[in-house]
C-alpha cells in the first residue's frame, strides 16, 4: 500500500493576488506568443492559495531567488517585489519582469523554460528565501 501527500505534484502554486496579476498580463497581451501559451497552460493547472499559505520555497513577491541559466551555468540572484515597489536603486525587480514571470509559482529545484529577448532559455531555481 502506498501513501501520497496532499501537495500538488504538477502545476505552480500562486497567491490569489499574483494569479490575478498574471491573468492580467495575458489579457493585456504583454507576452510573446510562446510565453503567453505557456503561462495560460500553467495557470489552468495552478493551485491558488492565500499568501500566508504559500510554501516558503515558492517564488512570489518579496522573495530572493537564485536561478541558474542551464546553458551558460551562470547563477544570478534576484530580489522580487510587487511592481509598485521595484526600484533599481534598491536592487529590486518587479514580479512582472520577464524572468520573474517565468519563475512565479515554482519552488526551489524546479526547471523553467521561458522566451527571453535572445531566445528560449532554460533555468533552474536554485534557492528561494523571503526578503
From TrEMBL:
Q: Among its keywords, does the record have Secreted? A: no
The highest taxon in the source lineage is Bacteria
Cited SUPFAM superfamilies: FKBP-like (SSF54534)
* Residues in coiled coil: none
Q: The Transcription elongation factor GreA/GreB C-terminal domain covers which part of the protein?
A: 55-129
Q: Which GO terms fall under biological process for this protein?
A: DNA-templated transcription elongation; regulation of DNA-templated transcription elongation
Question: What name goes with this protein?
Answer: Regulator of nucleoside diphosphate kinase
The scientific name of the source species is: Arcticibacter pallidicorallinus
UniProt keyword terms in alphabetical order: Kinase, Transferase
Listed Pfam families? GreA_GreB
The UniProt entry, under PANTHER family, shows: REGULATOR OF NUCLEOSIDE DIPHOSPHATE KINASE, TRANSCRIPTION ELONGATION FACTOR GREA
List, in alphabetical order, the Gene Ontology terms for molecular function in this entry.
DNA binding; kinase activity; RNA polymerase binding
Amino acid at each position: 500500500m502506498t501513501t501520497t501527500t496532499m501537495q500538488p505534484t504538477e502545476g505552480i502554486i500562486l497567491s490569489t493576488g499574483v494569479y490575478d496579476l498574471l491573468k492580467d498580463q495575458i489579457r493585456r497581451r504583454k507576452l510573446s506568443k510562446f510565453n503567453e501559451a505557456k503561462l495560460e497552460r500553467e495557470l489552468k493547472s495552478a493551485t491558488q492559495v492565500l499568501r500566508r499559505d504559500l510554501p516558503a520555497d515558492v517564488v512570489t513577491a518579496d522573495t530572493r531567488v537564485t536561478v541558474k541559466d542551464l546553458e551558460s551555468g551562470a547563477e544570478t540572484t534576484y530580489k522580487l517585489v510587487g511592481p509598485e515597489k521595484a526600484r533599481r536603486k534598491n536592487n529590486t525587480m518587479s514580479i512582472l519582469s520577464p524572468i520573474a514571470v517565468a519563475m512565479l509559482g515554482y519552488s526551489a529545484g524546479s526547471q523553467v523554460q521561458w522566451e527571453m529577448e535572445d531566445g528560449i532559455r532554460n533555468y533552474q531555481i536554485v534557492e528561494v528565501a523571503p526578503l
